[in-house]
Write a structure and sequence with these properties.
Layout: H1 3-18, H2 26-38, H3 40-55, H4 61-70, H5 75-89, H6 97-110, H7 114-125, E1 138-142, E2 153-154, E3 162-168, E4 173-179, E5 185-186, E6 189-190, E7 196-198, E8 204-206, E9 213-214, H8 215-226, E10 232-241, E11 247-257, H9 272-279
Parallel strand pairs: 1-2
Antiparallel strand pairs: 1-3, 3-4, 4-7, 5-6, 5-8, 8-9, 10-11
Helix pairs in contact: 1-3, 1-4, 1-5, 2-3, 4-6, 5-6, 5-7
């Protein structure tokens, strides 16, 4: 998380805590959320900032702060803040009318539709089979989940548990939650069962026994589901010779389809730019 995003979170968290949104658990919950992102040592400075904000007066209250930070954040960052706020107010497993109103006020200031807020809340805190219209935005990695027979599945043979990945189309982002006894690592950090994580570009999920699941694989599966027209890209025996007679490309063969992320790797002068220029006509 960026410094700007963390400060916005602490200001909003402090207002919710001061208004009774998280009761006695405020510091504990904030510390746990920060430690998940920054580690225990990295969390402490922002816990201190949270306490400082909680003791001070914030002109305009919750909506005023939300309106102020809204202009400083991208829409994707606003969604991150909103999801963490939902986690915070639900930390005691209860959700009061005041807490609902607080989340709704922030969402309104951030330009997030009520239906999107409800869908994310359901994904965070309800049993997945009970979340309406979930399968059209969900990908499961691991064992099939009873009650969601039509959810697309990335099979991890022998894996006990499942990683549920939800696409948030409003900001073209992905969040995930894990349930199960085995250890799953996201970018080298263990996932806590029931906790919510953001799947950033370049991320990788690993277990001790299963093949890694890369961000590009996940995005490709979602793209395949959303694409109504399939595109196939075929390159057969393409070569290129420079004007001076030097061989630029030896026979190239490519067969890919829409929804696949392809990377070109090679040393300087290997022919990456030449290949792209040739393919581009």
């Amino acid at each position: 998380m960026s410094e700007k995003l963390l400060r916005a979170l602490m200001r909003l968290f402090a207002l919710l805590a001061r208004d009774g949104g998280v009761a006695q658990e405020g510091v504990t919950v904030v510390r746990a959320l920060l430690a998940q992102q920054l580690g225990p040592s990295g969390a402490q400075p922002y816990v201190d900032l949270f306490l400082e904000f909680a003791r001070s007066e914030a002109p305009g209250g919750l909506e005023g702060v939300a309106a102020e930070v809204s202009g400083e954040l991208t829409q994707k960052q606003k969604m991150v803040v909103l999801i963490r706020l939902i986690e915070l107010v639900h930390a005691d497993k209860k959700l009061s009318d005041q807490e609902l109103a607080s989340v709704a006020a922030v969402a309104r200031r951030f330009g997030v539709q009520p239906g999107e807020v409800q869908h994310i809340y359901d994904f965070l805190h309800r049993p997945l089979p009970l979340v309406p219209h979930l399968e059209e935005r969900l990908l499961l990695a691991g064992a099939p989940l009873p009650g969601l027979p039509d959810a697309p599945l990335v099979p991890w043979e022998g894996f006990l548990g499942h990683v549920a990945i939800l696409r948030v189309p409003a900001v073209d982002s992905y969040i995930l939650r894990y349930e199960g006894p085995a250890e799953v690592l996201l970018n080298g950090q263990p996932l806590l069962p029931g906790a919510i994580y953001f799947l950033a570009a370049g991320s990788v999920l690993r277990t001790a026994r299963q093949a890694p699941l890369y961000y590009s694989d996940i995005v490709a599966r979602f793209l395949r589901r959303s694409s109504t027209e399939r595109i196939q890209f075929d390159v057969e025996n393409v070569t290129y010779v420079f004007a001076g007679g030097r061989q630029g490309l030896r026979p190239i063969h490519i067969h890919e389809e829409s929804g696949t992320l392809v990377g070109l790797m090679g040393a300087s002068g290997a022919g990456k730019s030449t290949l792209l220029n040739v393919l581009n006509g």
